[in-house]
Amino acid sequence: MRIGLYPGTFDPITLGHVDIIRRATSLVDRLVIGVAINRDKGPLFSLEERVAMIEDECAELSAATGTEIVAHPFENLLIHCARDVGASLIVRGLRAVADFEYEYQMVGMNRSLDSSVETVFLMADAKHQAIASKLVKEIARLDGDVRKFVPPRVNGKLLAKLGKPAGGP
Asked: Is 134 annotated as catalytic?
């Protein structure tokens, strides 16, 4: 069984994340969405809320593709998480060249720690390349419409979390 790990904070999960998840399902039999606890980032959503959003958004996709998709919180090194879940493949999404420099360093360090775990990069679809969770939260916080950046259920949860009226501007 081919197991892949797609790590991130997912605060919140965006359409860019969903696009990468959808495409990663063609590479593996089981895709583990590693939800980083990452206290330093001070996430808007709790770990439980982020895991629930991922599970909600991936249930249909899992059924449609036949790939098992599970959310798995982690707070250790990425390579240790990969070992914990039995992943031989780490999936990373790229939006821009700036992402590549950081990811290139990460791959080098991860390979030094465990050369048996490969990393693959998937470019976000062009229509999703500018989407970043941080920007989505800022736009929503400032009363902008984020419906084209996040799934509908996530939009509702984001607006509720920020105390904004349902449905958006």
From this structure: no
Residue-level pLDDT at 126:
83
Residues of the chain with pLDDT under 50: none
Assess whether 80 carries a catalytic annotation. Answer: no
* 95 classed as catalytic: yes
Catalytic choice (72, 83, 95, 153) = 95
Which of 22, 92, 133, 157 is catalytic? The answer is 133
Q: What is the model's pTM?
A: 0.93
Give CA–CA dist 138/14, Å, rounded. Answer: 14
> Residue type for 51, please?
V
Q: What is the pLDDT of residues 130-143, one digit of tens each?
A: 889 999 999 999 99
How far is residue 54's CA from residue 59's CA, in Å, rounded to a whole number?
A: 8
Cα distance between residue 23 and residue 17, in whole Å: 10
Contact 84, 73 (CB under 8 A): no
User: Is 72 annotated in the active site?
Assistant: no
